[in-house]
Specification:
This protein is mainly alpha-helical. It has helices at 2-22, 29-50, 60-88.
């Protein structure tokens, strides 16, 4: 059962990472992080509401894993842009 929970945490972490990388359109870090984290939480809440009849409930650990993934995704994008600029020189 523990490996099953770890798989869910990893999946939500990676989804949050994707949200952080893809949905961070502004240059200011705090706004970028808040936008992607709130967008992740809205999608997660909609998922919980849509599949509540199947027994899915809000899990704080999954939400935190997604928000941490979003934070790291917001850090990855500027790093990749910086590396790309250095390689083009």
């Amino acid at each position: 059962m523990e490996s099953f929970a770890a798989q869910w945490l990893t999946a939500f972490f990676l989804i949050g990472l994707m949200f952080g990388v893809l949905f961070s359109p502004v240059r200011e870090f705090f706004r970028r992080f808040v936008f992607s984290a709130v967008l992740f939480l809205i999608v997660y809440k909609a998922l919980v509401n849509a599949s509540g009849h199947a027994g899915l409930q809000w899990e704080h650990l999954l939400a935190i894993a997604g928000v941490v993934g979003s934070l790291l995704g917001c850090l990855v994008r500027p790093g990749v842009v910086h590396i790309n600029r250095r390689l083009r020189r």
